[in-house]
Amino acid sequence: MVRKAAIFLIFSVFSFQPILAAGQVWQAQNSGISDIDIRSVSVFSGDDNFICAAGKKCLYFSQNRGEFWEEIFSLKPEAGEINFVTFDCSAPETLYLATTEGLFTTKSQGKAWQRIFRRVSEEAKDVGWIALDCQDLRKIYIGTKEGLYFSQDKGASWSKLRGGLPRSEVRSIAVHPSNSQVLYLANTYGLFKSIDSGRTWERIYVTSYKVADEENEENEEESLQMNENQNLINCIAVDKGNPRKIFIATGEGVFVSPDAGETWNKLPTQGLSSDYVNFIVVSDKKDAVYAATKNGVFEF
Fold it and tell me: How many helices (H) and strands (E) does the chain have?
């Protein structure tokens, strides 16, 4: 799962306008970064001075809100690529790194690494997304091209969560900020919601009506032949201040649900030079949504 992202900012419903200097500001915050193909950015929830950025081959760490970056990890040329990075919920020196060769963690801000998810199958070894349960620090969810995996012992052991999910690449995962039994998962068929920690799932947003049975091998090949023009979901974001409000970044813009997925509205696209949104973040500090596209930064 590979996504390149630049960032966009979107201003109020009726006054959408790009910040023209956004690219310059972002460029100034690249001091120390050589691998500019940035796939993921994580901000530590306890102190927003700590930011980690994942490039294609390198991992960078900033202790001053991105004014300067230090390379703390790099993959060898033959060792695959980095897909995603996230901070631990409680300790800024602990990071989780998703790569095409598995899941790694460090407790020393990148000085030493341990692989905690090894190759299960050719498809499952490519870890594209990580979601942590900040109410129970033992629990980790990861998305692979084969499906969803779960650990309840900080990565010592893993099990696959099916719960009726169709066989598909997992594109994004989000854990409810105050009720960790509620999970959201995006795959090629849409957005799914679980209210029992992933044991069962309900689809609440559709990107494809063609859903294959997990156990039906005859449908499996058909399930992978997806329409390239689908409105696929690239990222899920839950508003911590109002967890019933869910945002999804798609190939056709940003959609929001005010009622935990029962109804959906598309945010205005005026001011966005590209409808294709790679990544979305809801600010903890102010009422703002940040969307990442290939053309710059917008705030809504």
Answer: 2, 24
Structure tokens at 239: 């508003």
| Closest among 113, 84, 108 to 97, alpha carbons compared | 84
Please report which residue ranges of the chain form alpha helices under DSSP H.
22-28, 217-223
Compute CA distances 28 → 21, 31, 69, 268, whole Å.
11, 6, 11, 29
Beta bridge partners of 282: 289
pLDDT digits (tens, 9 = 90+) for 41-78: 788 888 878 888 888 898 889 888 777 888 998 888 87
CB neighbour class for 196 (10 Å; exposed up to 12, middle 13-18, buried from 19): exposed
Q: Report the alpha-carbon distance of residue 163 to residue 208 in Å, rounded.
A: 19
Q: Cα–Cα distance between 160 and 69 in angstroms, integer?
A: 36
Note if the pTM is more than 0.85: no
DSSP state of 268: P
36, two tokens: 């500019």
Spell out the long-range contacts of 53-60 with Cβ–Cβ below 8 A and sequence spacing 24 or more: 53/85, 54/82, 54/83, 54/84, 54/85, 54/97, 55/82, 56/81, 56/82, 57/81, 57/82, 58/33, 58/34, 58/82, 59/85, 59/95, 59/97, 59/110, 60/32, 60/33, 60/35
